[in-house]
Design goal:
- The chain is an alpha/beta fold and 370 residues long.
- Helix 6 packs across helix 13 and helix 10 packs across helix 14.
Length: 370
């Protein structure tokens, strides 16, 4: 089971009953969800999938969830589900989405690796499965160029991460350790001051000088660059083939067992969406931004959207080996006991869809359900 060493962090978690846990937030945007069940056209003569009235899908309103954004905006999910209504809920952080999956408020969700790992281990492997990949990359170390001119200059500076124990926080702590520097993970104090700051307020913290840089996902990284920051390191440069998981697709095990046809329909839509995104990157970027405007009330400006979009790779492959490595980084940082991830993946339906499309199947890195 994940373990937290900091009582301060425990007080900061949204749900006290979840203790002890590694922080679940994928991107640190808070923990409030909003309902976004917009009406969509159902084709005449369409039939219900698995006899269901609806399938409830959750995702984050940011560009690392591009598959969901574009799939909603372009109607790919609704088309694949036929007369079964696709309903959507937009989340601000991992804890609320995991809670929604556990309670049945959603059936399927797009989410980052840390909340997937924690949700799975907290339930002793009984609540979710990762059923597909969605995105790789989209995380950068951006800094004030007047204060930090090289990687060695990061020592002694104040660098923001979204939240203690989240995906980017763990990656930064691991990078710090690889430099030979020391930081106490729970407090963030040491050779580098790790400042846990909500992504929504990190740009203001940077402008005020409260932090000298940040290790953050998109679009926060590009928002900082628009304020004068410089990209010092793209995290993808640290991974083999420059690939690491940033977003996965998860499903409730209960829903997967009861409604495999509906899950397969959503996966067909996901694969179709990813294919369309990769074939039409500019149109896909515009579609994602339109959905962001629906979800948040404001589209991203071009100087933020364009570089953010370029840094993300859309993929059906969940990059399972990298999720296992990320869990190892959290263990190394002392934020997580070694989790038992056997069975966290069930890629059988995804590989069925990929085979039907004439595409190569993907691996669960030995962590699949048996």
């Amino acid at each position: 089971m994940p373990a937290i060493r900091s009582t301060a962090l425990r007080r900061g978690l949204a749900v006290a009953a979840a203790l002890p846990l590694l922080t679940l937030a994928a991107c640190g945007y808070g923990s409030n969800a909003k309902d976004d069940s917009a009406d969509q056209k159902i084709a005449a003569g369409a039939q219900k999938t698995d006899g269901l009235d609806s399938v409830k899908i959750g995702y984050f309103g940011n560009v690392t969830h591009a598959t969901a954004l574009v799939g909603v905006q372009k109607g790919f999910f609704q088309k694949s589900l036929g007369a079964t209504k696709a309903k959507y809920q937009v989340f601000n952080a991992g804890p609320s989405e995991i809670e929604a999956l556990n309670s049945g408020s959603i059936d399927i969700g797009w989410i980052g690796p840390s909340p997937a790992i924690n949700g799975y281990t907290k339930s002793d492997g009984k609540n979710l499965r990762i059923i597909a990949g969605s995105a790789s990359g989209g995380v950068k170390l951006v800094v004030n160029p007047a204060k930090i001119k090289s990687l060695k200059d990061v020592k002694g500076k104040k660098i923001a991460t979204p939240q203690l124990g989240n995906t980017q926080d763990v990656a930064f702590l691991n990078w710090i350790a690889e430099q030979g520097w020391k930081v106490d993970a729970p407090s963030g104090k040491g050779d580098v001051s790790v400042v846990r700051t909500d992504n929504k307020v990190t740009p203001d913290a940077y402008k005020s000088g409260a932090v000298d840089g940040a290790w953050v996902p998109e679009p926060t990284a590009s928002k900082l660059v628009a304020e004068g920051a410089k990209v010092l390191l793209d995290e993808s440069a640290l991974w083999p083939d420059k690939k690491f998981v940033i977003t996965n697709v998860i499903v409730s095990q209960k829903f997967l067992k009861a409604h495999p046809e509906a899950v397969e329909a959503v996966l067909k839509a996901s694969v179709e969406t990813n294919k369309w995104i990769n074939a039409n990157p500019d149109q896909a970027k515009e579609a994602a931004n339109r959905q962001l405007a629906v979800d948040s009330g404001k589209a991203l400006p071009a100087d933020v959207l364009d570089p953010a979009w370029k840094s993300i790779r859309i993929t059906d492959d969940p990059l399972a080996a990298t999720l296992n490595t990320e869990a190892g980084h959290a263990v190394k940082a002392g934020l997580l006991q070694r989790p038992k991830l056997d069975g966290i993946y069930d890629l059988s339906l995804l590989n069925k869809v990929l085979k039907a499309e004439g595409k190569p199947t993907v691996s669960d890195a030995g962590l699949g359900a048996r």
